[in-house]
Design goal:
- The protein has a two-stranded antiparallel ribbon.
- The chain starts with a helix and ends with a helix.
- It has two domains: about 120 residues, no CATH class; about 160 residues, no CATH class.
- It has 14 helices and two strands, in the order H-H-H-H-H-E-E-H-H-H-H-H-H-H-H-H.
- It is mainly α.
């Protein structure tokens, strides 16, 4: 997996710690990339950089990891980790991604040094030998999950991956839903909550929600606020009126934080986990909706709005 023989040639003084690294779960992502036909540009890309462009420009939805890795993470994050976690006050996640190691089989690209197992989370582990003496070893720290996780992950098959790929090619996923779901997973604290809320708004919000002049003249919901529109769509999408109210409660918290209101209370574990659960539920439900005949995104969301506003 690491091309150990090549690493040994390039870094003879840094052995690959295969025994220790093999104790951990690894997510392996393969990607075929069209390479530059110029070997020197692949070996030293900095010398071929276009210096005339704005070097300080920001790509708004650039991820921390390569797109192929973030796509795989989004797929895994559709699993209900927040329900499987037995200690959500510690972490609702079932796994973490501290870093990635990229292995490039292009001979003109110098490989990165082997990762160190010391950069991962290990804990002491006491075992007894045959004579009853205690031996101190080490093992990876595990985030405790319910037994349902093992059975639930069996649903994440090649077929499920293809379904997600098909859904992401439709207009329902033309907004950065996946970006914010992954960003929330990689964030901590209030940044995590904010990213989950943004994922919901990316999934169920329309520009015309805030800019009333973009709405059709015959709009039957002219007096419905932007927040209530997203809440209604969520209630219809999830077929649960309570989910819309949960969103509005979280939105009030978000607004207090964004606008710097005084007296903002600490965000409780249930609130933090609820934001994660709603964002995941919405993303998962959109995958199912996307499997239906493809329509313009605005049409699909307006239909959800009509249905949601009819909830009691």
């Amino acid at each position: 997996m690491f091309d150990a023989s090549r690493l040994l040639r390039n870094f003879p003084g840094k052995p690959l710690e295969t025994t220790r690294l093999a104790q951990f779960q690894w997510l392996s992502v393969e990607e075929e990339v069209e390479v530059d036909s110029r070997p020197d540009a692949r070996a030293v890309p900095g010398l071929f950089m276009d210096l005339s462009r704005d070097l300080g420009e920001i790509e708004p939805h650039l991820g921390r990891f390569p797109p192929a890795v973030e796509d795989a993470l989004f797929f895994l994050l559709l699993a209900p980790w927040e329900k499987w976690s037995t200690l959500p006050e510690v972490d609702w996640r079932g796994f973490r991604v501290p870093w990635i190691c990229t292995v490039d089989d292009d001979l003109f690209v110098r490989p990165d040094p082997a990762p160190s197992a010391d950069s991962l989370t290990l804990e002491p582990w006491l075992v007894e030998d045959r004579s009853g003496q205690e031996i101190e070893l080490e093992r990876p720290t595990k985030l405790p999950l319910d037994e349902a996780a093992e059975a639930g992950l069996l649903d994440f098959t090649d077929e499920a991956w293809r379904k997600l790929e098909a859904a992401r090619s439709t207009p329902l996923f033309e907004t950065p839903i996946a970006h914010f779901i992954v960003r929330a997973f990689l964030a901590d604290g209030m940044d995590e909550v904010m990213a989950h809320m943004t994922a919901i708004e990316a999934a169920l919000g329309l520009e015309m929600d805030h800019r009333k002049w973009l709405r059709p003249k015959a709009d039957p919901h002219k007096k419905v606020s932007a927040t209530d529109r997203v809440a209604a769509r969520m209630a219809a999408l999830l077929n649960k009126a309570a989910s819309g109210q949960s969103y509005k409660d979280l939105f009030e918290l978000r607004s207090s934080y964004v606008h710097g209101r005084a007296g903002l209370q600490k965000v409780s574990t249930p609130f933090r986990v609820r934001a994660r659960g709603l964002a995941r539920d919405v993303a998962s439900a959109l995958v199912d909706v996307a499997a239906q005949p493809v329509r313009p995104r605005a049409d699909a969301l307006n239909e959800l709005l009509d249905r949601g506003l009819r909830f009691p």
